[in-house]
Amino acid sequence: MSVTNDRRLPLSCFIIAVNEADRIGPVIESVVGWVDEVVVVDSGSTDGTQDLAANLGARVIHHDWPGFGPQKRYGEDQCRNDWVLNLDADEVMSEALIREIKALFEDGPPPHPFYRFRLRLVYPGDTRPRLWADYHNYVRLYDRRFGRFADSLVHDTVQTGDVKPIQLRGDAWHYSYRSFGFLVEKLNSYSDLQAKSIKKQSRLALTLRLPFEFPLAFVKYYIFRRHITGGRKGFAFAMINSFFRFLRIVKLLDAMDAARK
């Protein structure tokens, strides 16, 4: 099968969303027209996300929020193709990544069941990733018959078993945070979930980590994840993320104290 620009791939793109009217538009626009369908699983938006997505050509389905992994598994089930592409409501495909995925389907279904690509962070207020931007690297293009999202309330990763994913060269751009205030709120909520779901750890080990968690995390984010190249925004991002690594341990210890009472 030869795929031309006006022919849709046998591929379903699914997106989970809630109150994403200010961000989901470019995400849908980056895939609609060349994938077979766009499925938006909405968990109760009150800002018009559903109507916006539908007007852009997506099929919108309501499903109450069960957690990250279960919601994405539900999204997988709603797709009419076995080959699926997962995007979050703040992740926009680059032209290079689109061309690369189209090429995979040039002669039929891709030969490998799992493909991953980089999600390059865009700072709040910026329009594109900075030079040498840090990234996360996830499996987001895959055949659901061979692997699915883990059934985890916090972590949303595709389980590939013993099969090694193929790395794609193209990137998606990750507009993860509307503002630095939004970043603080998101990390605070996420650390609450982690404190409830992380496997039991040694109280002594956590206590010993407490003084070192922030400085070591800052070195990780600022130096090794290259936020040093991001100016004041990079410094702020590294500081905030490092603090919440520290706060996560504080919350875990608090949860242990509460369980002992």
From TrEMBL:
Record domain Glycosyltransferase 2-like: where = 12-110
Q: This protein's superkingdom?
A: Bacteria
Q: Which Pfam families match?
A: Glycos_transf_2 (PF00535)
- Family per similarity comment: Belongs to the glycosyltransferase 2 family. WaaE/KdtX subfamily.
What is the protein named?
Glycosyltransferase family 2 protein
Q: Which organism is it from?
A: Microbaculum marinisediminis
